[in-house]
Amino acid sequence: MAGRYVSIWFRHLTTDWFSLRDPERRKQPFVLTAPVHGRVTIVAANAVAEARGIHTGMVLADARAVEPTLQALPEKPELANKLLHRLAEWCIRFTPVVAVDSPDGLLLDVSGCAHLWGGETPYLETIVKKLQARHYDVQAAMADTAGVAWGVARFGCAPWVIEPRRHLDRLVVLPPEALRLEADAVARMHKLGLHQIGQLMHVQRTSLRRRFGGHFLQRLGQALGHEEEILESVQPVEAYQERLPCLEPIVTATGIAIALEQLLQTLCQRLQQEQKGLRTAVLKGYRVDGKVEQVAIGTHRPSHNPRHLFKLFETSLPTIEPALGIELFILEAPRVEEHYDHQEKLWEGYGGLDDQRLSELVDRLASRLGTEVIHRYLPDEHYWPERSFRRATSLQEQPTAPWCIGHLRPLQLLAVPERIEVTALTPDHPPMLFRYKGQLHTIVRADGPERIEQEWWLQQGQHRDYYRVEDDAGRRYWLFRLGHYHEKIYQWFIHGFLA
Amino acid sequence: MSAEKADIIAALQREILRLEGFRPGSHAAVDVSLGPFQEAFPNGTFPVGAVHEFLTASMEQGAATSGFMAGLLAPLMGDKGVAIWVSAARRLFPPALQGFGISPDRFIFLDLKKERDVLWAMEEALKCGALAAVVGEVREISFTASRRLQLAVEQSRVTGFVLRHAQRNVGTTACVSRWRITSLASEPEEGLPGLGFPQWKVELLRMRNGKTGVWNIRWEDGTFTPVYTTVQIHEQQQQVG
Q1: Does the distance separating the beta carbons of B129 and A357 come in below 8 Å?
Q2: Peptide bond before residue A430 is cis, with ω within 30 degrees of 0
Q3: A residues 389-418 near B, CB within 8 Å?
Q4: Both A342 and A490 in a single domain?
Q5: Do B92 and A415 touch (CB under 8 A)?
Q6: Which domain does A280 fall in, by range?
Q7: What ipTM goes with this model?
Q8: pLDDT in tens, A355-368
Q9: pLDDT band at residue A405, thresholds of 50, 70 and 90?
């Protein structure tokens, strides 16, 4: 199928934006100015000003002579680009491929989109009406090639929808400006008496190339559809994406949930067919007022289970603010991985870390509580107790070293060792008494010392001599002495509680 | 005649347990042998697929309780099982679990901020049949909350442990049992210095469809071994004699 393109031309893009701020300006002649070569020159004029003969490129003083009531404001640099980007994002409700066409237009690849709005003419009318409702003065045309659409939108006349395969008839009557050429090339053509593109068609390509350059031939080829034109979409189209335009704007939570369910069904069906599973998904809701609401989820393993994915979205769905209503839902899966069904069956009921049900549980917990609260630990090759384990990056990650089993460790460990007062025989005897939180413990039995040195490449400091001790009530503690006796700088700490 | 009667009584007791909704554990392979107090449990087996409650009052008691609990978790988790530990103030030192025959990397820890989240996460985890056990550390648990946990395990047959750091105001809960573990002085081997195997006083304060009691127990070579005081040994000898 041949492509269909829409070109939208904003005739007074920047002045329209200024008029939105102050609607009074719409009725008065109004221009934007910028200093050029030391002179204040008009860079944009609104419709009223243009009607009175003021055009861009005029010096402001000259324009004031023509129209004494002329209002002038300094232009905002980059405003046009910013506006176009915002409008392009807004236009994504009509088609996924929207490109910014600087300085004053948008190009839409609408192949296969128009039937959703009941045909091409209503489709184009909807676009124009909606933009006009936002007080932008626009002209738009639809054709088989972006080049012809561009030319007709700016230099053509109604009908704006050019039927498929009829673009050549319209192109031949357009002036050479309609080919998106540099100003001097256009001027040269007019000088040669070439006022219509049709006149150029009969000239030999070699002489055209010699006179007007390769760029001209490329533009002509693009307009005719011989050369492909690639639109650079403002939002790259995700490979795994589902769209759901709504006839009526959705405002209720139930409506959003139903939309999400439908999108998940279709997306998961496709993923299943391709033996893939998604790792992240984003639901976007395009609101009537032009804002985009979105929620995202992530999974620990590729999944194409719509029920599970819906549950993950469920917690964050209430954060979607529908305001006046959502017109279009888009579900994207930016990260997709291989996922085979037979694997799932194999692990079902297995009960290990590979169990699908476990990763689904972890996803559910993460979606409500956040991923940072979920910890799994693997052994790390350090003797220092606080560094003897590290966080695992995934449920499936296997330990690379064995867990240290040589020494019994306390089940309860204080996050920070606490200072205690100790009575002990020097130099290496275990303590006889210690006082912790105001309570005196008499030590009956003790094991130790177990010396653990600092790892000098990580941290400077004293070594620790650990003792496992049991007091007269049968309670067991893990104590340590920091530093040597003879240096008189040692300190005693309690670090944990043994079972 | 008396043997026949005993058989009938045993059969009737089993029938009553069945009617009361007590089902023998589906994990046929799981054998939590607790030695002397096996008979306190309904049907003489440790109830899996139920929620057990442990009371602790101090850090020392907390360590003893987690030790006893780790001893119960080891056979429940087996070689491949996974357990979740939910807590708002966790002090558990993961590498220490290795000493109780559990590979710490098969534990998933949830370190939350609010107690309410702990109960929610626990319930959600208990619903997941892929887990061997779920441990939750809370200060308070209402009857309704414990009821919810109990309902969750009845579907999934996961064993739940509620570790309560509560000194007083211990209200009723829907948990199947209530335990209190206190550490006892260890008994080193003859002639050896230092500490012996960990020993605990295990108080079973409540056991649905079972009996209560107090036992002394030692964790030795990966199993629970009963420890008899001299008075108990004396009593047994008298019974035999």
Answers
A1: yes
A2: no
A3: 389, 392, 395, 398-399, 403-405, 408-415
A4: no
A5: no
A6: 241-361
A7: 0.84
A8: 778 888 888 888 88
A9: low
